[in-house]
Amino acid sequence: MASGQEKRSELDARAKQGETVVPGGTGGKSLEAQEHLAEGRSRGGKTRKEQLGTEGYQDMGTRGGETRREQMGSKGYEQMGRMGGLTTKDKSGAERAEEEGIDIDQSKFRTKS
């Protein structure tokens, strides 16, 4: 049976070959890097939630879209949503809208001053 150190060495070698050996460690080039990535991803929202409290954290999520709509105005926010819906892996929403002849007024994207 392999010792803990031998097992870690084996996992590290597999990670260096590009394999994900730690759940949530996607993108890490070593076992240690994958462990750190996984830990950071699991902590991400929790830290902010601890700072704001549960109600504050929920309110922040609710306010996000409303704040942007207030900045851009309803028309700009609507246009931005239309463009986002057209976006694909290969092309931006603006490119697809132009190709398909869909009129999107980007002047409405400007934030109110």
From TrEMBL:
Using the UniProt annotation, give all residue ranges assigned to the region (Disordered).
Answer: 1-113
Naming one, the record's GO cellular component terms include:
cytosol
List, alphabetically, the PROSITE patterns matched: SMALL_HYDR_PLANT_SEED (PS00431)
Residue ranges the record marks as coiled coil: none
Q: Name one GO biological process term.
A: response to abscisic acid
Return the Pfam families for the record.
LEA_5
Q: Which InterPro entries match?
A: LEA_5, Sm_Hydphi_plant_seed_CS, Small_hydrophilic_seed_prot
Where is composition skewed (Basic and acidic residues) in this entry? 1-17, 32-52
Family statement drawn from the similarity comment of this UniProt entry: Belongs to the small hydrophilic plant seed protein family.
Name of the featured protein: Carrot ABA-induced in somatic embryos 3
